[in-house]
Amino acid sequence: MEHLLTLHDLSSEEIFQILRLAKKLKRELKEGVLHPTLQGKTLGMIFTKASTRTRVSFEVGMSQLGGQALFLSSNDIQLGRGESIYDTAKVLSRYLDGIMIRTYKQSDVEELAKYGSIPIINGLTDLVHPCQILADLQTIEEKKGKLEGIKLAYIGDGNNIAHSLLYGCAKVGMDVAIASPKAYSCNEEIVENAKADARKTGAKVHMTEDSTEAIANADVVYTDTWCSMGQDAEKEERVKAFQGYQVNKELFAKAKDDAIFLHCLPAYRGFEVTSDVIDEPNSVVFDEAENRLHAQKAVMQILMSK
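Structure (tokenized):
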């Protein structure tokens, strides 16, 4: 494991290694055990998309591991003014020990890894969001005691979260059902990649337009915003298209009685989810948000302590 670009790039064992370390780091943090494993190391954090959880969790995580994080917005660096990714990767590799980038194009992340000589961590692109799904898997394992054989139903936009859920669930042996309107379905290549991974682990991948069909017998129910960053012009059209894909009390009741609810946040109550679902005891969205810190610390320690 040299980078974290997508979960599809990792083996099942590498994902489980991250989850085991995340669990250990979380437990020991609460016990007051220090882990200065990245002392003297610096993580550069490139943001062309704004964030709450990503910035705070990576900054705090690096601090807890004894290193430091350097915030680099697109307004602060020459990459935002037309400098090539090739030059940026070459230069930053001379200064930093790792880069986390949260941006629009997956190709930008891939090129940083290609031309740089330090670990690259994908903090989010329009295509995938691997860090979020590592935190999700950690949360599911905490609440359900296992991953293999668990069924996750995702209701909503076939976006970066849906794509990384397909990859993550398939890799760890979880069944995954995705329900999206046809016009907003998942990337076909990602679906086929996930199905290939699922055949190796015994997981099932099911794609449908029917929310009720997807959520039946689900142990975990997941949704995300219908209108992601950069899609504001499509909001009215999207709200109309996603009628029938809201996770409300009636739909959630069709999952298992002990099903848990996940959302990567920020959530827009009254749109993709109702308050009587996200604020109920079965909702674990804040445990899930906390686990971004622990899962990302595990990724950074594995990649940057070498």
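The longest strand covers residues 42-47. The beta strands are 42-47, 68-73, 98-102, 120-124, 151-155, 175-179, 205-208, 220-223, 260-263.
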